[in-house]
Amino acid sequence: MNKKISVLNPFNSGEYVVYPAHGVGKVEDITKQKIAGSELELIVVNFAKDKMTLRIPMAKAETTGLRKISGADTFNEALTTLKGKAKVKKIMWSRRAQEYENKINSGSPVAIAEVVRDLHRNENLAEQSYSERQIYEHALDRLANEYAVFENITPAEATQKLLDLLVK
Q1: Which sign, positive or negative, has the C-alpha torsion 69, 73, 78, 79?
Q2: Positions in the chain short of pLDDT 50
Q3: How many CA atoms lie within 13 A of 134 on its CB side?
Q4: How would you classify the pairing of strands 38-47 and 52-57?
Q5: How far apart are CA 56 and CA 96, in angstroms?
Q6: Alpha carbon 112 to chain centroid, angstroms
Q7: Which CA distances in Å does 136 have to 3, 51, 52, 130?
Q8: Which helix H or strand E contains 112, and what residues bound it?
Q9: 93: buried, middle or exposed (CB in 10 Å: 19+, 13-18, 0-12)?
Q10: How far apart are CA 151 and CA 76, in angstroms?
Q11: What is the pLDDT, as a whole number, of residue 1?
Q12: Is residue 82 within 8 Å of residue 166, measured between CB atoms?
């Protein structure tokens, strides 16, 4: 018995989307494929920077967190968060690092902006550890990539705009 799963498709081929665990990707195609005797409707998302392609079942798109690029309200909140004062908890680094990774993988621009804000260091402050720097750069990259698509600018320009906000 073959079940055909038909879900209302909110995504279009050629548009940019955010997959929380991998960041910004482009919908290459929406296709049907027969897997284990069932026909599935798949969203094919290409992550050019990582040279990776994901096939996400349409029925699972929402539960995996796949979403369209955030809107103006979300980015206004994220940019306001970036301008705020850093809030570093006084807990062990390993626990903070785990919290930061969870925020990055949530895919929320506001949560990612919190990580960038909290780990940003000006030139005159103490050096960051290697793991702090890695998490900071990962978060900044994720936020800049989505912001670049939102603003229709290059990721490098988006990164510079975000860094300019952090310095102010």
Answers
A1: positive
A2: 1-7
A3: 6
A4: antiparallel
A5: 31
A6: 8
A7: 45, 22, 23, 10
A8: helix 109-119
A9: exposed
A10: 12
A11: 36
A12: yes
